[in-house]
UniProtKB/TrEMBL annotation:
Organism domain of life: Bacteria
Location of the region described as Disordered in the Swiss-Prot/TrEMBL record: 295-339
Pfam families: DUF2520, Rossmann-like
The DUF2520 domain, residue ranges: 151-276
Annotated PANTHER family: CONSERVED HYPOTHETICAL ALANINE AND LEUCINE RICH PROTEIN (PTHR40459:SF1)
Name of the molecule in the record: Short-subunit dehydrogenase-like oxidoreductase (DUF2520 family)
Putative oxidoreductase/dehydrogenase Rossmann-like domain span: 11-132
Source organism (scientific name): Dactylosporangium maewongense
C-alpha cells in the first residue's frame, strides 16, 4: 500500500504543469530544475534576446508566449520578475482573467511575501513566496548549485505549507519559513551579505591592480575563502586585521593611500571599518579606551597626518558623515554596544 501511495505522489508531482513568467536567470534555471524533478514546464515568457536564448538552452521545446497565455496554461504559475515589476504583473494577470480558482501562483522575490499576491487570492488562486537564497548566472552551472542544496525563504498560508515544502524539496532545497513582516529584513540581510560582498571584492581587486599586483584574483582567493569560512563558523571571532587590533596608524595609512589613488573607495572603507570596530568592541576583543586613537582616525580627525604635501581629498569631505556615526562610539564605551 505504501508503494502505491508513493507511486501516486510521484505521479502527482510529475503531472504538475508549470508556467514560467520571466525566463531570466532565476526563472529559466528553476524551470529547468522542476523539469529535472519530473514536472512539466508548459510555457514561458521570454521577451529579450537574452531571455529567449536562455530559454532555448535551459527549456528546450518550451513555447514562449505572452504572460496571460502562460498563466492560463499552467497549474502552477511561477513569477520570476524584478521586485518592482511584480505588483503590476500580478494586477495585470488578474485583470485579464488569466488566473483561475485553485491555481497556485508563486513568486521568487525575496523582498515580497504574500501581500503582493493579494489580488491573486481574491481571484481564487493560491499564493506562495519561494525565494532561493542563491545568486544565479542563468546557466546550467546553477542547476548543480541548486542540487547541492540551497535554502529557500518561504512564506505560505498554513494549508499550503506542505505543498511549498514539497516544491522546495523537488528543487533539492531546504525551507526557511519567513514571516510576512520580516521578509524585507530577510532580503536586506542577503543583499548586504552577497550583493555588497561582490562589490567589496571587486573594489579590492581594483585596488590591488592599482598597487601593481598582476594577478589579484590569485591573491584574494585563498584569503577571502578562509575569511568566509571562518566567519560562518566563528562569527565575530573571525575578524582579524588592523581595526580588530586597534592599529590606528595602519588604518590612517590605508586612508591616505586610498584617498590619493581611489577617493571613491574612502567612504565605504570608513563605513565598514567603523562597523568592524563596533563589533570587536562589543565582543570584548578591543577595549574602548584602546580603541580611542582608531576611532579618532575613523571620525576623520586622525588620518590626514603624514607628509605635509598630503592633499585634501574626498575622505575629508566625508568627515561629517562618519562623525555622525560616532554616537555609536559612546554607546560602545558605556554598554559594550550591540553587534
Amino acid at each position: 500500500m505504501n508503494s502505491a501511495l508513493n507511486s501516486q505522489k510521484s505521479s502527482q508531482k510529475s503531472s504538475r504543469s508549470i508556467g514560467i513568467i520571466g525566463a531570466g536567470r532565476v526563472g529559466a534555471v528553476l524551470g529547468a530544475a522542476f523539469v529535472n524533478a519530473g514536472h512539466q514546464v508548459v510555457a514561458a515568457v521570454g521577451v529579450s534576446t537574452a531571455s529567449k536564448a536562455r530559454a532555448e538552452q535551459l527549456l528546450p521545446g518550451v513555447a514562449l508566449l505572452p504572460a496571460d497565455q502562460v498563466a492560463a496554461s499552467a497549474d502552477l504559475v511561477l513569477l520570476a520578475v524584478p521586485d518592482d515589476v511584480l505588483a503590476g504583473l500580478v494586477h495585470g494577470l488578474v485583470e485579464t482573467g488569466a488566473l483561475r480558482a485553485g491555481q497556485i501562483v508563486a513568486h521568487t522575490s525575496g523582498a515580497h511575501g504574500l501581500d503582493v499576491l493579494a489580488p491573486v487570492t481574491a481571484a481564487g488562486a493560491r499564493p506562495l513566496a519561494l525565494h532561493p537564497a542563491m545568486t544565479f548566472t542563468g546557466t546550467a552551472v546553477d542547476l548543480s548549485r541548486l542540487a547541492a542544496g540551497v535554502s529557500f525563504g518561504v512564506t505560505a498560508p498554513d494549508d499550503l505549507r506542505d505543498l511549498a515544502a514539497s516544491l522546495v524539496a523537488d528543487l533539492g532545497g531546504q525551507v526557511e519559513w519567513i514571516e510576512e513582516e520580516r521578509r524585507p529584513l530577510y532580503h536586506a540581510a542577503l543583499a548586504h551579505g552577497a550583493n555588497h560582498l561582490a562589490t567589496l571584492v571587486n573594489e579590492a581587486l581594483d585596488r590591488l591592480r592599482d598597487a601593481g599586483v598582476q594577478h589579484p584574483e590569485q591573491v584574494l582567493a585563498p584569503l577571502l575563502g578562509a575569511a568566509l569560512d571562518n566567519s560562518l563558523r566563528l562569527g565575530d571571532a573571525a575578524i582579524t586585521g588592523p581595526v580588530s587590533r586597534g592599529d590606528a596608524g595602519t588604518v590612517a595609512k590605508h586612508l591616505r593611500a586610498l584617498d590619493a589613488v581611489a577617493p571613491e573607495s574612502v567612504p565605504p572603507y570608513l563605513a565598514l571599518a567603523r562597523r568592524t570596530a563596533d563589533r570587536v568592541i562589543a565582543a570584548g576583543r578591543l577595549r574602548p579606551m584602546d580603541a580611542e586613537p582608531l576611532l579618532d582616525v575613523l571620525s576623520g580627525s586622525g588620518h590626514k597626518g603624514g607628509d605635509s604635501g598630503q592633499k585634501e581629498g574626498s575622505a575629508q569631505k566625508q568627515v561629517p558623515v562618519v562623525a555622525a556615526q560616532r554616537g555609536g562610539r559612546r554607546k560602545a564605551k558605556g554598554t559594550g554596544g550591540k553587534p
